[in-house]
Amino acid sequence: MDVNEGTAQHLPPLKKGGRGGLRTGDAAKIPPNPPLLKGGLNDDQGFTLLEVLVALVIGVLLVALTPPLLSGMSGSTELRSAARQLAAGLRNARNAAITHQREAVLTLNLAEHRFAVSGDTHEIALPNSVALHLYTAQSELLDGERGNIRFFSDGSSTGGAITVSSTKLAYRINVDWLTGAIAIAEQDVQPQ
Predict the structure, then answer these.
(1) Domain total for the chain?
(2) Strands ordered across the beta sheet of 104-109
(3) For residue 50, is it within any domain?
(4) What separation in angstroms does the CA of 133 have from each of 32, 99, 116, 172?
(5) SS3 assignment, position 15
(6) What was the pLDDT predicted at 119?
(7) Does some domain include residue 19?
(8) pLDDT at residue 6 is higher than 90
(9) CB atoms within 10 A of CB 1
(10) Residue 91 falls inside a structural domain
């Protein structure tokens, strides 16, 4: 085992004079350590006016463009929320029909953007910014502005669909007539 193994290695002694050896005056000729990053900032340098202006322009653009992007997101969030509220109301009506072993109805008022489930006096308001369309059995249309989707004690229903839409996006809440299952499907709005 070598005595120096695992310890710092010592360099061989320097030759005095002669070829290839270092002399005492050679230390002055060794260049100082070069900077690690070329083009980096030294103590006497700063940012140029152009760099500061570019940073300011980018900051102003970010501040100016953020609110319109966020307002677009709130519209789609509002639309999705309305679709989920309607789906929850339909599920509530179906569960009430099965639990109480009698028919339950979700009544949708298209003109007032409201709906209610039979047996519940509380009406739920939907945002006026969304468009509503009801597709249901002819026998469930009350007038041109109101209609029902009816659920029976075995969980089946009259079937139908409710579409909640904006200018760019739509959600269709489908109610299967045989099983009463409720599903939400996202759709793109077709230009007319």
Answers:
(1) 1
(2) 124-125, 114-117, 104-109, 146-151
(3) no
(4) 79, 29, 16, 9
(5) coil
(6) 85
(7) no
(8) no
(9) 5
(10) yes
The model's pLDDT over 8-44, given as tens digits with 9 standing for 90+, comes to 555 555 555 555 555 555 555 655 665 555 555 555 5
Amino acid at 86: L
Which strand (E) or helix (H) includes residue 133? Answer: strand 131-136
Quote the pLDDT of residue 106: 97
| pTM to 2 decimal places | 0.62
According to DSSP, the residues that pair with 146 across neighbouring strands are 109
DSSP three-state, residue 61:
helix
> Residue 113 maps to which CATH number?
3.55.40.10
Q: Under 8 Å CB-to-CB from 92, ≥6 apart: which residues? A: 106, 117, 120
Domain that holds residue 94: 73-188
How far is the CA of 119 from the CAs of 84, 93, 104, 116, 167, in angstroms? Answer: 21, 9, 8, 9, 34
The C-alpha atoms of residue 105 and residue 139 are separated, in whole angstroms, by 13
Residues 6 or more apart in contact with residue 165 via CB below 8 angstroms: 79, 130, 131, 133, 171, 187, 189
